[in-house]
Amino acid sequence: MKRFLAIKDAHLEKINTLKKDKRFNNVPAQLVYFHDHFRREGEEMMNSKKVTKRDFQNFVYYLNMHHRIEDTSLYPSMMKQFDINKQDLNNLEKDHKIIDEQEEIILKLFDEKASQEEIHTHMVDFMDLLFTHLCVEEMLLLPYMLHMRSMH
Ligand SMILES: [Fe+2]
Ligand SMILES: [Fe+2]
Q1: I want to staple 28 with a disulfide (CB 3.0 to 4.6 A). Which of 69, 138, 139, 145 is the partner?
Q2: Structural domain of residue 106, as residue ranges?
Q3: Which ligand is nearest the CA of 99, by number?
Q4: Which residue ranges does the record assign to the Hemerythrin-like domain (predicted)?
Q5: Whole-structure pTM over 0.85, yes or no?
């Protein structure tokens, strides 16, 4: 959780400022709504001592869907509408790939009947990676999203 904890406070401050903007209720709020869901569920899974493969599969099913929509629809649409740094978006896409790979590793641990302790250690690292990604994505995209009319 080191990476995430290092940026958490600054991020919360920024989000709270953005939330006061009346344009926030349009597109940006949708992104934060989904992210909050992943943060809530992810935190619960990370703190539980008896996560099943099915729990994790359900979690990553919606997470992957969210990431594919970003890769194929949100990011291209933002590229078109704004003078946004392409490398920054590429880095976010790269994060999605790393998250996919880590998911596979955790699923394999379940298949190999790894101990809850070992799974927990990987789960904490996975959530650190994911929560950091969600924060970085919000910090980068939300200021642009305040000016968006729709996601498509
Ligand atoms: Fe993302
Ligand atoms: Fe996202």
Answers
A1: 145
A2: 2-145
A3: 1
A4: 35-144
A5: yes
